[in-house]
Amino acid sequence: MAGAVGRRGAWLELSVEADVEAVEAVSEILSRVATGGTSVEPAFELVDEGLAAQLDTARPAIVRGYVPVTDAATTAQAVAAVEAALGHLSAFGLRPIGELTTRVVHEADWATAWKRHFPVLRIGRRLVIRPTWRRHRPTPDEVVITLDPGMAFGTGLHPTTRLSLVALERVADQGGTDALARVLDVGCGSGILSIAAAQLGGGRVLGLDIDPIAIEATTANVRRNHLSRRIRTRRGSLPSRQAPFDLVLANLVASVLIELAAELASELRPGGRLIGAGIFIDRESDVRTAFETKGLDIESRDVEGDWVALTAVRPA
């Protein structure tokens, strides 16, 4: 690690194997120091000659975070802080959390190192996530999202992203283009939800994220999908200072959804919908209460393993 100190474009990759029950908590711990972004890789096996993936929720996921390599003391302090926090987390008796491992990754090699983790993935009834480096021959009814995740969260592999996409597809199917005329994506990450909303018939989409790396990734992925005229990105958070939206997407974490509940509700027009995801099942009641307290009615609930997404509507 010390040998890489001072190299331009070098990152220290922190990785931890974690059971699905511990993924959210481990991700939050890594995000405290990982200014280069975090991601989650659920266990999967390739099927259909490597063109699709089948997830295995019984096996642990790998949570990764990226810390810029600056000087030895700062980098060592970040590693020590993560190790201490993971030790405290283990005391809560969650299902297995593995040992923290580290390795230096050079920015120029980052995308290549990650390519093996992302197959073509089918989600919901017609959504297909195609990494830029994989081939896919779409059928007429498929909606294909071409994606290069970069160093931003949101690839379609994590349950919270899949749940958001399933709920989004349902809103589009039931409400038509009027339900997606104006869409706000809070914490847009790689841009996957913004792009899906536009591909499913959305008129105008605004993606917000406080992370400049996420904004860069979203902007690049929007261009790849030829949607620059319909999707705008901006660094920042709520309030958006825009006219009310028909749909707000918020794939965050439970604590942030609770904190932002009032602002999320205020971004909706009467009759508009909010899809809130990133909710560990133990926090579902807290998020429900926060949404309902701010005048939202829970319309539907999607579940995968221990993760929940809630679709709420602002009464007309």
What key phrases describe this protein's structure?
Alpha-Beta Plaits; alpha/beta; 316 residues; Rossmann fold; disordered N terminus; globular; 7-stranded mixed β-sheet; 2 domains; 4-stranded antiparallel β-sheet
In total, the number of domains comes to 2
* CATH C-level category of the largest domain: Alpha Beta
Enter the CATH topology name of the largest domain.
Answer: Rossmann fold
Measured by DSSP, the beta-strand proportion falls in: 25-35%
The average pLDDT is 85
Q: How many E-type strands?
A: 16
Low-confidence stretches: 1-7
Could you state the CATH homologous superfamily of the largest domain? Vaccinia Virus protein VP39
Rg on CA atoms, Å: 19 Å
Summary, kept brief:
The protein contains nine helices and 16 strands. By secondary structure, the protein is an alpha/beta fold.
Description:
- The chain is an alpha/beta fold and about 325 residues long.
- It has two domains: about 1-115, Alpha-Beta Plaits (2-Layer Sandwich), CATH 3.30.70; about 150-315, Rossmann fold.
- Helices cover about 30% and strands about 30% of the residues.
- The protein contains nine helices and 16 strands.
- A seven-stranded mixed sheet has the order 12-11-10-13-14-16-15, sandwiched between helices. A four-stranded antiparallel sheet has the order 2-5-1-6.
- Residues about 1-5 have low confidence and may be disordered.
Describe how the helices and strands are arranged.
Elements: E1 10-18, H1 23-31, E2 38-41, E3 44-47, E4 52-55, E5 61-68, H2 72-90, E6 101-106, H3 107-114, E7 121-123, E8 127-131, E9 143-147, H4 159-175, E10 182-186, H5 192-199, E11 204-209, H6 212-224, E12 231-235, E13 245-251, H7 254-259, H8 261-266, E14 268-280, H9 284-293, E15 297-304, E16 307-313
Parallel strand pairs: 8-9, 10-11, 10-13, 11-12, 13-14
Antiparallel strand pairs: 1-5, 1-6, 2-5, 3-4, 7-8, 14-16, 15-16
Helix pairs in contact: 1-2, 4-5
